[in-house]
Amino acid sequence: MSRYSRAVLCSACIALLIFACIAAGCSSAQAPAASGATFSNAAPPTSSGGANTILIKNFAFDPSSVTVKTGTTVTWVNQDGAPHTVVSDAGSPAAFTSDSLSTGNSYKFTFTQPGTYTYHCSIHPSMAGTIVVQQ
Ligand SMILES: [Cu+2]
């Protein structure tokens, strides 16, 4: 009888210990999870359309004309369901050609020479845009 009650007591102790361990483990595991959330919040907004971001949507570049300073990196983000490209026209001061951008993909080009750059989508020639790079 005493052996039985001792066994019950022990298993109760073990259960308490396990519970305490889980509780302690949970609280210590919460610290890195919280810092991870902060890290993911720090990700740059790619789809909100910043000053140097051109959205590709509805088979058009939006905005179609952008003026930036020399040295600016312009980012194109494809928000269409269809793939698009960003290809400089023949007369542009510098040449750039993106890969085919599927939905959500982006392309960056840094403009190091002043001038007027016209570009188009090689898949849909009616899609055209202009980047004016000022000194
Ligand atoms: Cu296109």
Description:
The protein is an alpha/beta fold. The protein contains one helix and eight strands. The chain has two domains: 1-43; 53-134, Cupredoxins -  blue copper proteins (Immunoglobulin-like), CATH 2.60.40. The strands form two sheets. It has a four-stranded mixed β-sheet with strand order 2-1-4-6, with no helix packed on it. It has a four-stranded mixed β-sheet with strand order 3-8-7-5, with no helix packed on it. The N and C termini lie far apart (93 Å). The structure holds copper (II) ion (CU). Copper (II) ion is lined by residues 84, 121, 123-124, 127.
What are the key terms here?
single chain; 135 residues; alpha/beta; Immunoglobulin-like; 2 domains; four-stranded mixed β-sheet; 8 strands; globular; binds copper (II) ion
How would the blueprint of this fold be written?
Layout: H1 2-41, E1 53-57, E2 60-62, E3 65-69, E4 73-78, E5 87-88, E6 106-110, E7 115-120, E8 128-134
Parallel strand pairs: 1-4, 3-8
Antiparallel strand pairs: 1-2, 4-6, 5-7, 7-8
This protein binds copper (II) ion.
- Please name the CATH topology of the largest domain: Immunoglobulin-like
Please provide the ordered H/E string of secondary-structure elements: HEEEEEEEE
Oligomer: single chain
CATH class of the largest domain: Mainly Beta
Architecture per CATH nomenclature, i.e. the level-2 architecture of the largest domain: Sandwich
Task: Tell me the total number of β-strands.
Answer: 8
State the secondary-structure class. alpha/beta
Question: Which distinct ligands sit in these coordinates?
Answer: copper (II) ion
Largest sheet descriptor:
4 strands, mixed
Helical fraction: 25-40%
| Number of DSSP helical runs | 1
Q: Distance between termini?
A: 93 Å
CATH homology group of the largest domain = Cupredoxins -  blue copper proteins
Percent of residues in beta strands: 25-35%
Q: Strand sequence of the main sheet, in spatial order?
A: 2-1-4-6
Unreliable sequence segments: 4-48
Please tell me the overall pLDDT. 76
Shape, principal axes of CA atoms? globular
